[in-house]
């Protein structure tokens, strides 16, 4: 009798940025959507018109984000100010604490099956 085969599914995230004319003026609503940390396959938050609602795993109150004149994004999190540079057609935020967030519309989810 052979050894039973067991497998488990995992998910890998790839980034594919939507096309967008980055020369157009942006306001904070350009960041509306659900945001993830793709390297951790982690749901981070939902942003709507400058209000960031954290995923329940973080147990944080809503935060306010703003788009600064220099094009960076600013967030006050519990009295600590964080800033992010914007990349990928306004679909990626590179935070000053090394976190990288990617908006859902730029993610391609692929299930991976690995024998265990």
Output the strand order for the largest sheet: 2-3-4-5-6-7-8-9
Helix percentage range: under 10%
* Radius of gyration, whole Å: 17 Å
Shape field: globular
Uncertain segments of ≥5 residues (pLDDT<50)?
1-11, 17-21
Number of helices: 0
Structural class: mainly beta
Q: Overall mean pLDDT score?
A: 79
Secondary-structure element order, N to C: EEEEEEEEEE
- Note the main sheet: 8 strands, antiparallel, barrel
| Terminal CA distance | 18 Å
The total of beta strands comes to 10
Percent of sequence in beta strands: over 45%
Walkthrough of the structure:
This protein has no helices and ten strands. The chain has strands at 7-15, 33-37, 42-48, 51-54, 63-67, 73-77, 80-87, 92-95, 100-103, 107-115. The strands form two sheets. The protein has an eight-stranded antiparallel beta barrel. It has a two-stranded antiparallel sheet with strand order 1-10. A hairpin with a 4-residue loop joins β2 (33-37) and β3. With 116 residues, the chain is an all-beta fold. The protein is globular, with a radius of gyration of 17 Å. 15% of the residues are buried.
Question: How is the topology of this model organized?
Answer:
Layout: E1 7-15, E2 33-37, E3 42-48, E4 51-54, E5 63-67, E6 73-77, E7 80-87, E8 92-95, E9 100-103, E10 107-115
Antiparallel strand pairs: 1-10, 2-3, 2-9, 3-4, 4-5, 5-6, 6-7, 7-8, 8-9
């Amino acid at each position: 009798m052979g050894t039973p085969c067991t497998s488990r599914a995992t998910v890998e995230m790839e980034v594919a940025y939507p096309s967008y004319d980055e020369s157009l003026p942006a306001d904070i609503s350009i960041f509306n959507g659900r945001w993830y940390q793709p390297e951790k396959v982690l749901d981070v938050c939902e942003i709507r018109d400058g209000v960031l609602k954290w995923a329940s795993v973080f147990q944080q109150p809503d935060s306010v984000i703003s788009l600064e004149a220099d094009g960076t994004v600013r967030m006050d999190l519990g009295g600590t100010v964080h800033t992010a540079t914007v990349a990928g057609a306004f679909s990626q935020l590179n935070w000053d604490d090394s976190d990288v967030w990617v908006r859902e519309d730029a993610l391609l989810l692929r299930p991976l099956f690995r024998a265990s």
